[in-house]
Amino acid sequence: MKKVIPIIIVALLLVGGIFGGRIIATLKGEIYNKSILTIESKICDFKQISIDTTAYHLFEFTNSGTEDLKLLEVKPYCGCTATEYNEDPIPAGGKSHIKVGFKPYSYGIFNKTVEIRTNSISTPVVYLHVKGKVR
């Protein structure tokens, strides 16, 4: 019995991680559709940047689905990371971008994450990463 409980907990966490975003969206009344957020590269490596600079990167993406794509939320996980994006729906076949800026506050290696929540049933949550070293 003691071995079964950890397995159940791991299974619940796994299911929650996979379907958690959809459950929350459903509770908020958001509806998923057949849009697809397609992005070539989800990682930007700034290599080395100076502490007195703000580094920017445009993550370009396409709606390769058959319905309008909406970015429901674009959330940086750190106060040193900021985003800019167009909140208008992206039509099927349309292109857009998310601008991510990173302003370092300390020296060393960094790896920052931006979470994107969409109305797409196939890509409801996408993660972008900016990384590098501050010198």
Instruction: Tally the beta strands.
Output: 8
Structural class: alpha+beta
Head-to-tail CA distance between termini: 53 Å
Query: How big a fraction of the residues is strand?
Result: 35-45%
The major pleated sheet works out as:
4 strands, antiparallel
Share in helix: 10-25%
Order of helices and strands: HEEEEEEEE
Name the shape in a single word: flat
Strand order of the largest sheet: 1-3-6-5
Count the DSSP helices: 1
Roughly how many Å is the radius of gyration?
A: 18 Å
The overall average pLDDT, rounded, is: 87
Low-confidence stretches: none
Describe this structure in words.
The structure is a single chain. The chain is α+β, with helices and mostly antiparallel strands and 135 residues long. It has one helix at 4-27, and strands at residues 37-39, 43-49, 55-63, 71-76, 81-85, 95-102, 108-118, 125-134. The strands form 2 sheets. The chain has a 4-stranded antiparallel β-sheet with strand order 1-3-6-5, with no helix packed on it. A 4-stranded mixed β-sheet has the order 2-8-7-4, with no helix packed on it.
How are the SSEs ordered, and which strands pair?
Blueprint lengths: L3 H24 L9 E3 L3 E7 L5 E9 L7 E6 L4 E5 L9 E8 L5 E11 L6 E10 L1
Parallel strand pairs: 2-8
Antiparallel strand pairs: 1-3, 3-6, 4-7, 5-6, 7-8
